[in-house]
Amino acid sequence: ILSPFNFTRRNTGSHDVTFKVAYCGVCHSDLHQVRNEWKNSQYPMVPGHEIVGTVLEVGSEVKNFAVGDRVGVGCMVWSCQQCDSCSKDQEQYCEKVVWTYNSIYLDGSPTFGGYSSLMVCDQRFIVKIPENLPFDAAAPLLCAGITVYSPMQYFQMTEPGKSLGVVGLGGLGHMAVKFGKAFGLKVTVISTSPKKEKEAKEYLGADHFLISKDEKQMQDAARSLDYIIDTVAADHPLLPLISLLKVNGKLVLVGMPEKPLSLPPVALTSGRKFVGGSAIGGIKETQEMLDFCGKHNITCMIENIPIDYVNTA
Amino acid sequence: ILSPINFTRRKAGSNDVTFKVEYCGICHSDLHQIRNEWKNSIYPMVPGHEIVGYVTEVGSEVKKFAVGDRVGVGCMVWSCQQCDSCSEGQEQYCEKTVLTYNAINVDGSPTYGGYSSLMVCDQRFVVRIPETLPFDAAAPLLCAGITVYSPMKYLQMSQPGKSLGVVGLGGLGHMAVKLGKAFGLKVTVISTSPRKEKEAREDLGADHFIVSKEPKQMEDAAKSLDYIIDTVSADHPLQPLLNLLKVNGKLVLVGLPENPVSFHPAGVISGQRFVGGSSIGGIKETQEMLDFCAEHNISCLIENIPIDYVNTA
Q1: CB A101 within 8 A of CB A45
Q2: What does pTM read for this prediction?
Q3: Where in the numbering of this chain does the Enoyl reductase (ER) domain appear (chain A) (predicted)?
Q4: pLDDT tens readout for residues B3-59
Q5: Would you state the pLDDT for residue B284?
Q6: How far apart are CA A111 and CA A119, in angstroms?
Q7: CATH 3.90.180.10 residue ranges for chain A
Q8: Distance between CA B195 and CA B232 in Å, rounded?
Q9: Mean pLDDT, chain A, as a whole number?
Q10: Do B277 and A266 touch (CB under 8 A)?
């Protein structure tokens, strides 16, 4: 249960950008952490890492942003900037990364996220929201969007004409379908809920829809997909999904089930397949993704909820 | 228990190469199949798929080989030549591949392998053994060698200066160490047997050796490897091996444990790592590997056993 909480943010430092929070996305991770499911929650906690707003103030060393700009902050607010991961613009794998909330900042203070009225953040972790993207529908791109965009780019799941499977049609899943179509892929949604078929095909443009519990459908689709993005956070068997992959197929986990998964080795060796994983994405590619979305007019399907109703959400 | 069996091979067809078998490697797969561990054994069975010998006859359409040539045949004797896998030179993933033994040939006859005096094979599946490689020490390259060479090339585990971990020091393992050193990698052998350390370092040139059952050694080596080739066919836990990988690390299974392997999704998600598998290799790359081995003077550590003692072997 969340309740109002007063706190102050630091004064705008020379490298900081301060903005008035217009909207903040509600991410499944917020739930996990509010409930201490990952066993590392510090209270009081102010969640929210899909934050968008209008700049109020910039520090003296800030050149890229000005008052009035439409900006956003995602899951990270600081990293070491020196390690391999930081130099490859993959700050989320830096060992010293500071998360937007539930982390400790350089100055020792706990970080507070976007379920608040104001946000202060180092300019290197601020991104610009393109003018043509509506603020509210762009916010979830900062976590859900980048979490699928990053592995799709890294694992090269972007070759036009190839086939992508998306498992699960939640926040991550629907973004994967939209990006998949934008990359020119044939997209198949794999879900346990038949009622999501209409949304998948009509609103998101998916080409095919498979019920994962239907053995015949799954069998008919064997060896038909080049790539699979698995967004499901509930425990689920991986072998039926691996069977859907063609030779050299790749399955990438972006959802975080709680229990270990298991596979017979021959499922991988007999077709040179692999199972990988990915976590959010770097700042540079987040900006790249936003610009891509601006160009292709891609935003998230959202439901606006006033902050007073956040507990029902 | 193997005992002598008399059988005839087909006459050399226009595309066939016939050769007198000089040596044939004993592969762990031979044991698996003799014992029907993979539940698909057809008897009588003549195992052996690391076969080398001198050409005695060539068919009229055979241009690349001549009588007296030193040749070899590995794990396959036919494939469809039309599917994606065949056109990519990865015949082992063809749905119609015919294996060298325990399979059915195009003409309906069962295939018999190299534990015999003579071999007849379609020229497309015959490779040349370079003059500088000793016949007997080259034979295991045809299965053990290519099984590690293929994924090392495909997954680009060959960038000089990077770190490779090899799990298990058997036929596949020792080839992976030799090839790893030849590619300019720093090689760490991970094993359950401390007594293999001497051989790893002195005979094979490994840079480091870790006993996988020693938690401290494994901990000290955390996040130190770019790639891991896992050759172990006994059941073993994968999570401790994943912990040895750096960010973007890759673990490839080439051994076939009987039971499913398991790991936690965080093992691949955090660090954008992956777990893949690979099976033998294509004909073109087998020839490429043989030529590479000749150039770098790489052959297998072997023990010669006369056929009469095959049951003790």
Answers
A1: yes
A2: 0.88
A3: 2-313
A4: 778 888 888 889 999 999 998 888 888 888 888 888 888 888 888 899 999 999 999
A5: 93
A6: 10
A7: 16-143+302-309
A8: 17
A9: 90
A10: yes
Residue B257 near chain A (CB below 8 Å): yes
ipTM at complex level: 0.85
Cα(B17)–Cα(B196) distance, rounded to whole angstroms?
Answer: 40
Write out the two tokens for A146.
Answer: 């980048």
pLDDT (tens digit, 9 = 90+) per residue, B291-302?
999 999 888 888
Run means of pLDDT, 10 residues per run, chain A, 313 residues:
80 90 88 83 88 93 93 93 90 91 88 89 94 91 93 90 93 93 94 89 91 91 94 89 93 89 90 92 94 90 77 69
Q: Across the 313 residues of chain B, what is the mean pLDDT of every consecutive 10-residue run?
A: 80 90 88 83 87 93 92 92 90 90 86 88 93 90 93 90 93 92 94 89 90 90 94 89 93 89 90 92 93 89 77 69
Contacts of B156 in chain A (CB under 8 A): none
Give the B window 134-153 contacts with A, CB below 8 Å: 151
Q: Where in chain A is the domain with CATH 3.40.50.720?
A: 145-277
Measured between CA atoms, the residue of chain B closest to residue A276 is B274
CB-CB neighbors (< 8 A) of A151 in chain B: 272
Q: B93 and A272 in contact by Cβ < 8 A?
A: yes
* CA atoms within 13 Å, Cβ hemisphere of A244: 32
What is the 3-class SS of chain A, one letter each residue? CCCCCCCCCCCCCCCEEEEEEEEECCCHHHHHHHCCCCCCCCCCCCCCCCEEEEEEEECCCCCCCCCCCEEEECCEEECCCCCHHHHCCCHHHCCCCEECCCCECCCCCECCCCCCCEEEEEHHHEEECCCCCCHHHHHHHHCHHHHHHHHHHHCCCCCCCCEEEEECCCHHHHHHHHHHHHCCCEEEEEECCHHHHHHHHHHCCCCEEEECCCHHHHHHCCCCEEEEEECCCCCCCCHHHHCCEEEEEEEEECCCCCCCEEECHHHHHCCCCEEEECCCCCHHHHHHHHHHHHHHCCCCCCCCCCHHHCCCC
- Was domain A16-143+302-309 assigned CATH 3.40.50.2000? no
For A145-277, CATH gives 3.40.50.720
d(CA B184, CA B261): 30
